[in-house]
Automatic annotation (TrEMBL):
Belongs to the 'phage' integrase family. Coiled coil: none annotated. Residues 96-309 form the Tyr recombinase domain. Residues 1-78 form the Core-binding (CB) domain. The keyword Protein transport does not apply. The lineage of its organism: Bacteria, Pseudomonadati, Pseudomonadota, Gammaproteobacteria, Lysobacterales. PANTHER family: PHAGE INTEGRASE-RELATED, PROPHAGE INTEGRASE INTD-RELATED. InterPro entries: CB, DNA_brk_join_enz, Integrase-like_cat_sf, Integrase_catalytic, Integrase_integron-type, Integrase_recombinase_N, Integrase_SAM-like_N, Tyrosine_recombinase_XerCD. This is Integron integrase. Keywords: DNA integration, DNA recombination, DNA-binding. It comes from Lysobacter niastensis.
Length: 313
C-alpha cells in the first residue's frame, strides 16, 4: 500500500483520488482472501468487479472507479498488464437529466444563505464552476478588472476562463481581504505556506508564501498535510457548503434535491435559456465534448422534446 501511495503522489493524483484508490485496492485484497495481488490476475479482478455489480448493485461510476484503481495497481505499481476483461458484468449506466432549479428557486435558495456560504453558492451559480474548482481558487486567478476567473487544473487537467458576475465583485473583494489578513497573521507566526501543485514548490521555493498563491477561501484553522506532514492552511472544507445548502433548501421550501452541482447545472441551463451559444456555454463549463453540454437542451424541452401534447391543442 505504501508503494501504491508513493506512485499516486509521483503521478500527482489528488488526495481524494488517493484515498479512493487505496480503499478499493484494500477491498480487493480482503475479498480475495488477503492474497498478494501479484499472485492474482484478470479472473480475480473480473470476479470482484462482477460481484460489485450483481451483489453490491453499485452504480456504473462506482464500478468504473474500482476498475481504474485496480488497473493503476497492476500497471503502474506491479508492472503487470491485465488481459481485457470481457466477462465482467457491467453495472448499467442510467441516463438521467440533471436536476435544475428555476430562476425563482435559485434566488430563494440564495436568499436563505449568508456569509461565506452565500458567496460560495453564488459563485457556483454565477460562474458554472465545479465545487472543488471554486474552493481551490487562488487569489492570483481572480481578475476583478476583466470580471473573469481562471480555473486551473480543472477536470481533465485543463485550464479555462469563466465569467465573474459583477454583482459578486465587491463581496469577493471583501473575502479576499479577510484572507489576506489571515495570511499576514500566519506569516508572523512562522507559517503562511500553501500547498503548490506539481513541482512548483521546488522550482519556486518562495512562491508558497506569496500572497497570490494563497487560497481565496482559506480554512479557519491550519491543518497537517497528509502528503508531507507540513502544517499549513488549506482551503475551506466542502462539507461547510453542503450543510448550508441542505438547510437553505428546507427553509426555501424547495422539494428538489440540491447540491453544489445543482447550481452548476442551473447556470448552464439558464445560460442556454438566455440565448447564449452552446459552444460558449461548453467553454465556460470546461466540457471536452459539446454532447455533454447538449444535455441541458433536453432540460429546456428543445428539439424533439419540445412538442405540444394533442390534449393541449
Amino acid at each position: 500500500m505504501d508503494e501504491v501511495r508513493a506512485r499516486l503522489r509521483l503521478k500527482h493524483y489528488s488526495v481524494r483520488t488517493e484515498r479512493a484508490y487505496l480503499g478499493w485496492i484494500r477491498r480487493f485484497i480482503l475479498a480475495t482472501g488477503k492474497r498478494h495481488p501479484r499472485t492474482l490476475g484478470g479472473e480475480e479482478v473480473e470476479a470482484f468487479l462482477s460481484t460489485l455489480a450483481v451483489q453490491g448493485q453499485v452504480a456504473a461510476s462506482t464500478q468504473n472507479q474500482a476498475l481504474s484503481a485496480l488497473l493503476f495497481l497492476y500497471k503502474e505499481v506491479l508492472g503487470i498488464n491485465l488481459p481485457w476483461m470481457e466477462g465482467v458484468v457491467r453495472a448499467k449506466r442510467p441516463q438521467r437529466v440533471p436536476t435544475v432549479l428555476s430562476r425563482d428557486e435559485a434566488q430563494r435558495l440564495l436568499a436563505q444563505l449568508d456569509g461565506r456560504a452565500w458567496l460560495l453558492a453564488s459563485l457556483l451559480y454565477g460562474t458554472g464552476m465545479r465545487l472543488m474548482e471554486c474552493l481551490r481558487l487562488r487569489v492570483k486567478d481572480i481578475d476583478f478588472a476583466r470580471n473573469e476567473v481562471t480555473v486551473r487544473n480543472g477536470k481533465g487537467g485543463k485550464d479555462r476562463r469563466t465569467v465573474l458576475p459583477r454583482s459578486l465583485a465587491e463581496p469577493l473583494k471583501r473575502e479576499v481581504e479577510r484572507a489576506r489578513l489571515l495570511h499576514q497573521e500566519d506569516l508572523l507566526l512562522g507559517y503562511g505556506s500553501v500547498w503548490l501543485p506539481f513541482a512548483l514548490a521546488r522550482k519556486y521555493p518562495n512562491a508558497a508564501r506569496e500572497w497570490g498563491w494563497q487560497y481565496a477561501f482559506p480554512a479557519a484553522q491550519r491543518s497537517f498535510d497528509p502528503r508531507d506532514g507540513s502544517e499549513r492552511r488549506h482551503h475551506v472544507d466542502d462539507a461547510v457548503l453542503s450543510r448550508a445548502l441542505k438547510r437553505a433548501r428546507l427553509c426555501a421550501g424547495i422539494e428538489k434535491p440540491v447540491s453544489a452541482h445543482t447550481l452548476r447545472h442551473s447556470f448552464a441551463t439558464h445560460m442556454i435559456e438566455a440565448g447564449y451559444d452552446i459552444r460558449t456555454v461548453q467553454e465556460l463549463l470546461g466540457h471536452k465534448d459539446v454532447a455533454t453540454t447538449q444535455i441541458y437542451t433536453h432540460v429546456l424541452n428543445r428539439g424533439a422534446g419540445g412538442v405540444v401534447s394533442p390534449l393541449d391543442r
